[in-house]
């Protein structure tokens, strides 16, 4: 992936444990007494998309990556594959880390 993930594994863990709550609708804040992580627009977007019907899933990313491989293999369509790979990289950066 060429785009830095929106949140680290530690930040996703804090978020998933409910250590973040929504503020007045314009921002997210950490609960009192919890380590504060700098919240970039990238990180906020990832947290707001997580689990929402309009968000992304690891399965969607896998499907896109499969289509990229099919496009290259079937027709050598490198231009479309390159655009799709850029989209996949951006989606991957918004997803929590894969569970192991």
Query: What helical percentage do the residues reach?
Result: 40-55%
What would the average pLDDT be, to the nearest integer? 76
Q: Distance between termini?
A: 18 Å
Element-by-element helix/strand order: HEEHHH
Radius of gyration: 16 Å
Q: Please report the total strand number as a whole number.
A: 2
Number of helical segments?
Answer: 4
Main structural class: mainly alpha
3D structure, described in words:
- It is a single chain.
- By secondary structure, this protein is mainly alpha-helical.
- It has helices spanning 9-16, 41-49, 58-75, 78-94; strands at 20-22, 28-30.
- Strands 1-2 form a two-stranded antiparallel ribbon.
- Helix 3 (58-75) packs antiparallel against helix 4.
- The radius of gyration is 16 Å and the shape is elongated.
- The model has no long low-confidence stretch (mean pLDDT 76).
């Amino acid at each position: 992936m060429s785009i830095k993930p929106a949140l680290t594994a530690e930040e996703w863990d804090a978020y998933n444990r409910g250590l973040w709550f929504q503020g007045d609708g314009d921002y997210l804040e950490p609960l009192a007494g919890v380590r504060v992580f700098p919240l970039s627009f990238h990180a906020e977007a990832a947290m707001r998309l997580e689990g929402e019907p309009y968000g992304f899933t690891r399965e969607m990313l896998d499907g896109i990556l499969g289509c990229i491989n099919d496009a290259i293999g079937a027709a050598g369509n490198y231009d479309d594959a390159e655009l799709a790979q850029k989209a996949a990289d951006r989606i991957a950066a918004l997803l929590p880390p894969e569970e192991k």
